[in-house]
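dumping this here before i forget
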Amino acid sequence: MNGSLRNGYLEAMGIQPWVRRGLQQADAQPVEAPAASGHPEQVQPVTGAAPAPSCATLDWPQLESAVASCTACELHRTRTHTVFGTGSRQADWMIIGEAPGADEDRQGEPFVGRAGQLLTEMLCAAGLQRQDVFITNILKCRPPQNRDPRPEEVASCHAFLQRQVALVQPSLILAVGRIAAHNLLETDTPVGRLRGRIHHYGEGRIPLIVTYHPAYLLRSPLEKRKAWEDLRLALQVADAGQQAPAS
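structure:
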């Protein structure tokens, strides 16, 4: 991306521009995995809920059709559209949020409201375009009044999300917000303590970085700098993965 354009996005976020590693050697820092956090990293379906649909062998069209016709939880009664996901299906980065809001429910696409606009600016500041990443949510249907997802709703969508991860095969996951982080990592540790560290998702141990939800950043703009730090860490992790020799 053009440097001046990237700096413009950063300035729009209220952040001092940063020169990416490789352009300014003084900023280069080795990426080291933190010590074990003591909480499980592999995601398992929530128990005590209706069985999630079987998706293990579905291709993209079949999976999208299964999501569109899903009636596994009560959210299908109030949705306008299911929100499957958008972006590159061969992306290196997979961004996972919480659930659709009102704008997403109307349009059938994740992160299209004000929070989505800020997410787009954040990605552009990191040198990424929306079409270059895959964006989805823990839930594929909007909870009424944007309330927090219930355990049985998360369980009903769990197989869909797992299959999306398996099909994309991302090299990095960015968990956006409390709900996404807690469900992906099976923990109730506050986001402020989860961010700034390298976690891993699933049996493939995909590197996972936690950051604040853009909706939270709109309410708390002083935290945007921390979100930028999270993106810098994600870039370092992604760079390290790309430079690693084949095993």
